[in-house]
Amino acid sequence: VFVYTTLIGVLGGAREMTLMGAMYEEMKAAGLKPTLVTFNRLLYAYGRNNMLEEALAVCAELRAAGMAPDRVTYGTLIDLFSKAGQHERAVAVFEEMQAAHLQPDAVAYTVLMNSYKRMGDPHKALALYRRMLDEGCEPNIFSYNTVIDLHGKAGRTRLAMTIFQEMRSKGVVPDVMTYSTMIDLCGKGGLYDAAEEMFESMQAAGHVPDTVAWSTLIQMWGRAGDPHRAALYFRRMLRAGLTPSVPAYNALMFAFLRADMFVEAKAAFDTLRRAGQAPS
RNA sequence: CAGUGAUGAC
């Protein structure tokens, strides 16, 4: 059972749905009883591949086997419906979870917060965060990253910075995503120095900046009208051994175009093409 | 006690 469950997880992650289904059938044919984890992995895989019907079939099978969904099952389901564009159904699953006397965990709250966020309803997302705190559920790094981004996107730069501090004081260690979110919101709030300080603290904390972190800074300097700094960070990104992403090139080209540096912009565009990337 | 779910730039 363990081996099959692991295989199903790997195949599902690799989007090998046919093989995964075959594995599952083989497992049952061998007389092995799937565990809740097996079902959860199947659910996750079907969700990632937008196979809602199959996902619902897994739910039915799980219940037919006499099992009760656990927190992971609910979390997976909420996210699955949300990403399939069925936000109302995601909310319904969250309520069903409570009706089943399962106290939602930080994941369930955060997943649903992100569902509201995708729906373009940041207010409800934050209301849910407050409810989470009221219920005594401790926010984890995902919750904090989400809340910080919500405030950042709403232009509440200072508040986002306060929450960033709060998170650290509670012993939640910021990761690369926290830092790139902070860099982005500082940049968009015009706090360029703070953004650069964030980038430095990230490295000082032992994190290796990824393409997103670099592109965010490149984009910031482009918008700020400083193409030279943008180009500097682009070069540093290359020197760090990273393959620039399309958004990184876009940010660099934007920086040059904004400063009327057409030759440089064209050069960046040609490099992008030579790298075999598809311009967007 | 425990394998499976969520977050960032364009």
Q: Main traits of this protein?
A:
280 residues; mainly alpha; 16 helices; 0% strand; globular; RNA-binding
Structural summary, described in words:
- This protein is mostly helical.
- The protein is built from 16 helices and no strands.
- α10 runs antiparallel to α11 and α12 packs antiparallel against α13 (211-223).
- The radius of gyration is 22 Å and the shape is globular.
- The protein starts with a helix and ends in a 6-residue tail after the last helix.
- 39% of the residues are buried.
Number of strands: 0
Element order, helices and strands? HHHHHHHHHHHHHHHH
| Rg from alpha-carbon coordinates | 22 Å
Q: Biggest sheet, in brief?
A: none
The helix/strand class is mainly alpha
* Shape descriptor: globular
**Number of alpha- plus pi-helical segments:** 16
- Give start-end ranges of low-pLDDT stretches: none
* Strand residue percentage: under 5%
Please bin the fraction of helical residues.
over 70%
* Mean of pLDDT: 96
Terminal Cα separation, in Å?
45 Å
Write the layout of secondary structure elements.
Blueprint: H1 2-13, H2 17-29, H3 36-48, H4 52-64, H5 71-83, H6 87-99, H7 106-118, H8 122-134, H9 141-153, H10 157-169, H11 176-188, H12 192-204, H13 211-223, H14 227-239, H15 246-258, H16 262-274
The structure holds one RNA strand of 10 nucleotides.
